[in-house]
Amino acid sequence: MKTALCLALCLACCLIRTESLSCVPGGQGCTPEKEDELKCRNGTVVGPCNGCECAKDRGEECGGPWGFLGQCASGLTCRRDGPHFQFRGKCY
């Protein structure tokens, strides 16, 4: 019984670890200087780790795990390939 409980606990810890997000601490966020440096034609968005990223244009890939494939520009929607929030999609 103890062995089964220990095994279940270890398995649960492994599953939790594979679904977690780790960002590098000390990021500066999305500052006006960073926005100017990126020179994004569709504007900027704040990424999953609080960094500044260029917004995606129509037809570009978006979504994915924790949104690492990017976010769509204003007025566009990320249509995902499936119902799960971590599926990848395209901006329309």
From TrEMBL:
Q: Which domain of life is it from?
A: Eukaryota
Q: Which residues form the signal peptide?
A: 1-20
**Keyword terms:** Signal
Gene3D superfamilies associated with the record: 4.10.40.20
Q: What is the protein name for this chain? A: Crustacean hematopoietic factor-like protein
Species classification: Eukaryota, Metazoa, Ecdysozoa, Arthropoda, Crustacea
